[in-house]
Design brief:
Layout: H1 26-40, E1 48-54, E2 60-71, E3 74-77, H2 84-91, E4 96-98
Antiparallel strand pairs: 1-2, 1-4, 2-3
């Protein structure tokens, strides 16, 4: 089966992010963005994030976890250290976090 998704395109233009306008610590920028999304969607789990790791089998693996805290040193979430995710992070602590930001409903 084949389906052409070439026309499934929206414009996600909002504003531009210029290097000269970014704070020295990127966590400050994250805090601004997080608070903006949280204010627009208080009923949603703004702290839901996708964590990507290199699984024990050597392939990328994604899971949704909840951000519990962030500091200037980084992001804190809970996991079972004995789980596949926990073991993968122990083996390779280089992970990727991704937050989904949707358009405000009033637009």
């Amino acid at each position: 089966m084949e389906k052409d998704l070439g026309n499934y395109r929206r414009s996600y233009e909002k504003s531009e992010l210029l290097l000269k306008d970014t704070p020295e610590n990127p966590i400050e920028l994250f805090r601004t963005w997080f608070n903006e999304v949280d204010a627009h969607f208080p009923e949603d789990e703004t702290n839901a994030m996708t964590i990507s790791t290199i699984g024990l089998n050597g392939f990328p693996k994604n899971r949704v976890v909840l951000l519990k805290k962030y500091t200037f040193e980084g992001f804190i979430f809970y996991t079972n250290y004995e789980s596949e995710k926990g073991l993968a992070i122990l083996k390779n602590p280089k992970v990727c976090l991704s937050f989904f930001g949707q358009e405000p409903k009033d637009k």
